[in-house]
Amino acid sequence: MEISMERPVFKAVGTPVEELDTPALVVDVGSVKHNIAEAHRAFVSGPSLLRPDVHSHLCPAIAAMQLDAPGTVGGVAVSTVGEAEVFSENGASDILVRNLLVTKSKIVRACGVASRCSVTVVVESAANAKLLSQISSESGIELGVLAQVKSPGGQIGAASAADALALARVVLELDGLLFKGLYADGEFPSEDVGSNTTQTLLEARATLDNSGIDVPIVSVSANEELFNSGGAEGITEVIAGAYALMDNRHTAYHSNLRHAAKILATIITHPEPEVAWLDTGQKASSIDTGLPEVDGASGVYLSRMSAEHGGLVVEGDAQNSLNVGDKVWLIPSDIGNCANVYDFIHAAENGALEAVWDVAARGRYS
Amino acid sequence: MEISMERPVFKAVGTPVEELDTPALVVDVGSVKHNIAEAHRAFVSGPSLLRPDVHSHLCPAIAAMQLDAPGTVGGVAVSTVGEAEVFSENGASDILVRNLLVTKSKIVRACGVASRCSVTVVVESAANAKLLSQISSESGIELGVLAQVKSPGGQIGAASAADALALARVVLELDGLLFKGLYADGEFPSEDVGSNTTQTLLEARATLDNSGIDVPIVSVSANEELFNSGGAEGITEVIAGAYALMDNRHTAYHSNLRHAAKILATIITHPEPEVAWLDTGQKASSIDTGLPEVDGASGVYLSRMSAEHGGLVVEGDAQNSLNVGDKVWLIPSDIGNCANVYDFIHAAENGALEAVWDVAARGRYS
């Protein structure tokens, strides 16, 4: 037998997914296409457009599929400057950075990205707007700016339409900044709150309109209602990302979407009839928002995880059918946290490896 | 102002750590040296030697510091074949893989590592020993083997000394395997359990001795008692790793050790006197075992984290002293999970950047 000196982590295209070394994050490409088609359809006919939030997967290959689908604004949302750097290097031409940038170093880096594509940032205070202006104007760069409006359940942003107007006026007077409109965090999954956020944004927009200020963008992160209705009148874009790969947290809100991303795990020991252990633990799944769900194996569920192992409870007939070496599929609780702990995604079609996708923005927290 | 087209994540040596882009995992080298000196001292004079478990940091630079210190077996423990691959490429010559290897693909890869350094694996069943033997002998490779003994609170391994003897005899008869001794998971942090595990191992060892079987290694993962006493008579090696960097989970057991690894975070908004938000959330810390602790800031603590943000509660005088842009230090709950979400560690001496250490084995789950 030949000994490979290479890390044989990358299998040949066509390899059955069950033969991948585990734990492995496997994405079914057909399900991704299904999810994107389903989700984008509402925005093709709805009142708003969709801005894919790529912090949900951190993967340029998936972002490209989202931007190729109809109903988008043609740009992406990210959480960090590091993610903006990665996606700008991978073809994104319009990037909204949702984290507040309050240090000189981060703003300088944002200006670096803005030198090669459109970058829009969110501000919530005049002081922050002035710092952004100082650095962008010294850099000879223009940063797009959305003024954040405080949503009914939120804590951050202009507290009233009058405050939003005052913040917009500050931005409009500053060099190096281009006022682009308003932004609010949507609330999810509460019931009526989404429409309250929408109402809050629309009131702020009306106040700016009445003062003669152009508001080309009114942006809100999705809740169930905005996502399923394709937005709302007066909202220009809805930010959403988990729909492409899906996870267990969002199952109840998106019953028409498929769990396109799963972790393949192997049973490494089955010491008692009702106990088995997987080779997959916290490091390879993230349980920050909860344990993964075992998929398609009746009577088998995770009861706990250590750093490297997953403890299974095995009930009923499963006790006679489960063996050491068998594979188990896990649905991550939160796809953003899960993708973040992988360097690459195994993309599969019809159960066979089709490609290896780089999770290029993994770990770009700063 | 010049715009950098490079990702300016890597700062110049000498940069004050407070100027690093956040979130950043920062390690104080002096504290690492202190911790290693403190922990290894017990094993220089104690009955056992120490085997550093590098899954706690996944970082070859730290492993080298541990192996350079006195009191070790001269080798490391890892959890996965992927980690063994990385550490063998970074100078480790003796590697114990603690995960059970039950698939052909993993065992072939373990043999690949064993073609360039000493690899020892753990077995708990005759069937697994036979699969290992089949692949290693076909590869012309010899794998070291430790027979796992079931610790009093554990579920995996030979259930009695007689079972351990039977398993050892299976291994001794198989080609491609070198029987090296016994292994058990220690139990931590219960009180008497450690000594029970030790007793269980010593009974198994005596049974093998009486049958004329040489037992060069008796290995156990550390609990508080074994760690602080430098092991126990008849135990040849104790496996421990968190001591080098430390974390919040281990504070109570190792009061002489310092929190060498902390996450530097920035306050990005402070919307109400008692509320502030950090730019650091689950992705950049891992809260699988709990929220980080705020270090050195009285009246400030984390109450929650989202994927990218940390919610601070601010009390008392801190309400008047904390501002947007201020830095906050966080002590991770679990250093293994935390290191795993970073590509590199900022190594600091006296508050200034000294080196950037690669977390080379991060994400090597398979």
Distinctive features:
homodimer; 366 residues; alpha/beta; Lyase, Ornithine Decarboxylase, Chain A, domain 1; TIM Barrel; nine-stranded mixed sheet; 29% helix; elongated; disordered N terminus
Topology:
The structure is a homodimer of 366-residue chains.
Chain A: E1 24-28, H1 29-45, E2 49-52, H2 60-68, E3 76-78, H3 81-89, E4 94-97, H4 104-114, E5 118-123, H5 126-139, E6 143-148, H6 161-173, E7 177-184, H7 193-210, E8 217-221, H8 224-229, E9 237-240, E10 261-272, E11 275-278, E12 293-295, E13 300-305, E14 310-314, H9 318-321, E15 327-331, H10 335-339, E16 344-349, E17 352-358
Parallel strand pairs in A: 1-16, 2-9, 3-4, 4-5, 5-6, 6-7, 7-8, 8-9
Antiparallel strand pairs in A: 1-10, 10-11, 10-15, 11-14, 12-15, 13-14, 16-17
Walk me through the structure.
The structure is a homodimer of 366-residue chains. The N and C termini of chain A lie far apart (46 Å). In chain A, helix 3 links the parallel strand 3 (76-78) and strand 4 (94-97). With 366 residues, chain A is of the alpha/beta class. Chain A is elongated, with a radius of gyration of 23 Å. The model of chain A is unreliable at 1-8 (pLDDT under 50). The longest helix of chain A is centred in the middle third of the chain and has 18 residues, at 193-210. Chain A has 2 domains: 17-27 and 256-358, Beta Barrel (Lyase, Ornithine Decarboxylase, Chain A, domain 1), CATH 2.40.37.20; 74-235, TIM Barrel (Alpha-Beta Barrel). In chain A, the strands form 2 sheets. In chain A, strands 1, 10, 11, 12, 13, 14, 15, 16 and 17 form a 9-stranded mixed β-sheet that branches. Chain A has helices spanning 29-45, 60-68, 81-89, 104-114, 126-139, 161-173, 193-210, 224-229, 318-321, 335-339, and strands spanning 24-28, 49-52, 76-78, 94-97, 118-123, 143-148, 177-184, 217-221, 237-240, 261-272, 275-278, 293-295, 300-305, 310-314, 327-331, 344-349, 352-358.
